[in-house]
């Protein structure tokens, strides 16, 4: 069975009998069949992290963290999440027999909450958590103190809180390097910045010469403008206003380190609009057959902006990270795309509809 521990030399030491395996990692790196040509690119690839066991790259984080907890004999996991981390932790904790409690951000998509609950997690949603920086910092501080007092990790997918488990996310870069060993330009979406930082660190660990660009929705621009403007520190926002779930992180978290690592790689910061993101979500589904949640299309929106600014070397391969499954946030599909109804037709009418469609295609 494929799993993250094929890259055990890059990961914390966990004896084989304590490793919790659900078939994570080794996700496909798919070459674009349509969008690349439309953008004038020779080689555009999508890293399909939406095909992990619970539907996002956060399974890489959870696989390492829960395996470490299992090795230490810890019996309860208390974590925060906007959805994907919580779903991943809930699944791996279920497999390990560890009780899981998730403090969810305000407005986490109901599909993600239900996924956590079905795995057996207890979910507590806190008003304004993830939207207001003061509330977010307060929740983090309180949970950090609680976990410290019980000698437990606080599983937030960020280096500030869980540097050991974040090494699991670094394997994304190792897998890309096995296929495209040098000169790759990677676009990574960011909320708190952990993924972008993991790709930078993973590339360095693998000896890969990657340029890593960080992309954020404009309504949660804590990192990318500072990166673009030559600043050394990320800046919290008063309130996260983006509708892109999973990237609503008003505080800095790993932002300062992201700026330094991306800049050293030759990368830049790109702010994108929610409208761009939803447009590329649709395009990925209809042009490439890739169904991702809105956050999974953020990288591609950043690539679009890089091309508009004439800041991309078109001769070098480009990889966009597709971070989560579209099934994670069906609310976004219902609210953003005016898809036609599928009411049942009378039995005598359906064939006429199909014949009309054929006539349109073969006229």
Automatic annotation (TrEMBL):
Keywords: Lyase, Pyridoxal phosphate. Residues 21-324 form the Tryptophan synthase beta chain-like PALP domain. It holds the Pfam family PALP. Its cofactor is pyridoxal 5'-phosphate. SUPFAM superfamilies: Tryptophan synthase beta subunit-like PLP-dependent enzymes. The keyword Ribonucleoprotein does not apply. The keyword Lyase applies. Signal peptide: none annotated. GO terms for biological process: isoleucine biosynthetic process; L-serine catabolic process; L-threonine catabolic process. GO terms for molecular function: L-serine ammonia-lyase activity; threonine deaminase activity. It comes from the Bacteria. PANTHER family: L-THREONINE DEHYDRATASE CATABOLIC TDCB, THREONINE DEHYDRATASE, MITOCHONDRIAL-RELATED. This is Threonine synthase. The lineage of its organism: Bacteria, Pseudomonadati, Bacteroidota, Cytophagia, Cytophagales.
């Amino acid at each position: 069975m494929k799993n993250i521990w094929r890259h055990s030399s890059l990961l914390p030491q966990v004896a084989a009998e304590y490793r919790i395996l659900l078939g994570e990692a080794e996700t496909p790196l798919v070459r674009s069949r349509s969008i690349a040509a439309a953008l004038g690119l020779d080689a555009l690839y999508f890293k399909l992290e939406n095909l992990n066991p619970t539907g996002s790259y956060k399974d890489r984080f959870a696989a390492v963290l829960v395996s470490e907890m299992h090795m230490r004999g810890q019996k309860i996991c208390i974590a925060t999440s906007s959805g994907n981390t919580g779903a991943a932790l809930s699944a791996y904790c279920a497999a390990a027999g560890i009780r899981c409690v998730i403090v969810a951000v305000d407005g986490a998509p109901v599909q993600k909450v239900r996924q956590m609950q079905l795995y057996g997690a207890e979910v507590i949603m806190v008003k304004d958590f993830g939207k207001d920086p003061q509330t977010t910092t307060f929740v983090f501080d309180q949970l950090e103190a609680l976990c410290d007092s019980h000698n437990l990790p606080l599983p937030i997918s960020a280096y500030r809180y869980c540097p050991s488990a974040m090494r699991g996310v670094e394997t994304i870069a190792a897998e890309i390097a096995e296929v495209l060993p040098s000169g790759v330009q990677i676009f990574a979406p960011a909320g708190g910045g952990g993924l972008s930082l993991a790709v930078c660190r993973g590339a360095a660990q693998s000896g890969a010469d990657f340029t890593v660009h960080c992309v954020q929705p404009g309504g949660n621009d804590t990192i990318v403008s500072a990166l673009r403007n030559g600043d050394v520190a990320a800046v919290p926002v008063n309130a996260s206003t983006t509708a892109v779930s999973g990237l609503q992180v008003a505080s800095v978290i790993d932002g300062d380190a992201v700026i330094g690592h991306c800049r050293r790689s030759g990368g830049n910061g790109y702010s994108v609009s929610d409208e761009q993101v939803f447009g590329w979500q649709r395009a990925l589904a209809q042009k490439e057959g890739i169904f991702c949640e809105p956050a999974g299309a953020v990288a591609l929106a950043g690539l679009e902006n890089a091309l508009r600014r004439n800041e991309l070397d078109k001769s070098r391969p480009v990889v966009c990270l597709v971070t989560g499954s579209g099934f994670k946030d069906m609310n976004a599909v219902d609210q953003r795309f005016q898809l036609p109804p599928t009411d049942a037709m009378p039995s005598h009418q359906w064939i006429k509809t199909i014949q009309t469609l054929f006539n349109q295609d073969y006229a």
